[in-house]
Amino acid sequence: MLSPLLPPAVVRLLASLRAGRAAALFAILALNLLPAAHGADAALTFTEALRLATQNSPLLAAQRSAITAAEEMTVSARELPDPKLKLGVESLPIDGPDRYSLTRDFMTMRKIGVMQEFVRSDKREIRGRRAEQELAREQAQLGSAQAALRRDVALPWMERYFAERMAKVVDEQYAETDLQRQTLQAGLRAGKAQPADLLALQVGLQSLLDRRAEYLKQAARSTALLSRWLGTASTRPPGELPARLLPALQHELATHAANHPHLQMLESQINVARNDAALAQTTTRPDWGLELAYAQRGPQYSNMISVQVSIDLPLFQANRQNRSIAAKQAQVEQASALKEDALRQHLAEANAAWADWESATARLQRFDISLLPLARERAQLALAAYRGGQAPLASTLEARRVEIDLRLQQLQLAAEQGRAYAQLLYFLPENHK
């Protein structure tokens, strides 16, 4: 029952806030029961999330199929073209007394033959090397896809882990603030507190609920992103952080970035372009073909055989072969430039992620060593002063708000460190967890 001495407007406001408080307490109770609801599911550790994503990724399965296809092509690329079977009728009359007869005219022949094209051995060898480079490119693409997968799984896992922990910190502060509210209400009934202090406390509680809702939204969004890679396993509660989130040394990181599978893929693409240019050079040296045929005529005429040789004639090289050679050489330069640009991009992104890692690590140490201990001490002194009647409640609430903000900032920095580590996973070897 609210004091009848309070102004009517204050009474109505406190009543509405009290109704909202019941819903808020129910929401917090539901959050605290979430771990129990997940009790049947084992915690999803960081390492297990990476393993499950690698095992279940359709993208990696598709890339493995591309590797299988490229392996098959390395065998067929060096083979001669298939022979061709030829069937036909030559010199068939279409008018006169012998029209459409296959036997009465001496020139009419039913013909069957085989034709084989003989591609130069150097061309077939170049095609074989090109197929091998395409295989190497697909294998490197698999490594690049695996690295991207580790990053794409690690990022939402980290986001969810820290979002849920920030929500728990807010819940702790809400529970403590609610106890202060109850104490203040008792003081208000005894005439030892001011209504304005209670209103300030109620506003703080609502602000905490809004902050908590934002963190839960982040956790739900991260879970949705994880579902692409993990399926139903994404709903399992996150386990603890890996014991050691430490990337390689910076100079080692640069070495790994320069030898990244994505860059190896681009190097294979350069070799494919070089083989295409070499193959274009061979078009100035023609291939040849051989055809054998047997021709059957009417019973009163002799049957015949024929042998035919065909040779390509590259007579207009200036506008055909030379243009093709120039185009393939330009593609080699294009592939080389793309690799150089990718190398610069990888080094820049790796160094940026390293800078984020170092900055977050250094700032976390400052929080652990000085900022948080000082904030806790200030909050304790303010609370002691308030209990002794030497300070208003507002100063105590302000000190506690600063402490909770610093704890949340600490978790936000830890989340930045986790995100930087997830980015660095893209540039580190696969065995680095």
Give your account of this protein's structure.
It is a single chain. The chain is an alpha+beta fold and 433 residues long. It has one domain (8-81, 121-284, 316-425): Outer membrane efflux proteins (OEP) (Up-down Bundle). The protein has helices at residues 8-37, 46-56, 58-76, 121-189, 195-230, 250-258, 261-281, 321-387, 393-425; strands at residues 84-90, 109-118, 288-296, 304-311. Helix 4 (121-189) runs antiparallel to helix 7 and helix 4 packs antiparallel against helix 9 (393-425). The protein is elongated and about 135 Å long. The relative contact order is 0.13. The model is unreliable at 1-40 (pLDDT under 50).
Topology summary:
Layout: H1 8-37, H2 46-56, H3 58-76, E1 84-90, E2 109-118, H4 121-189, H5 195-230, H6 250-258, H7 261-281, E3 288-296, E4 304-311, H8 321-387, H9 393-425
Antiparallel strand pairs: 1-2, 2-3, 3-4
**Spatial strand sequence of the major β-sheet:** 1-2-3-4
Which secondary-structure class do the elements indicate? Answer: alpha+beta
Number of strands: 4
Distance between the termini: 58 Å
Structure summarized in a few sentences:
By secondary structure, the protein is α+β, with helices and mostly antiparallel strands. 68% of the residues lie in helices and 8% in strands.
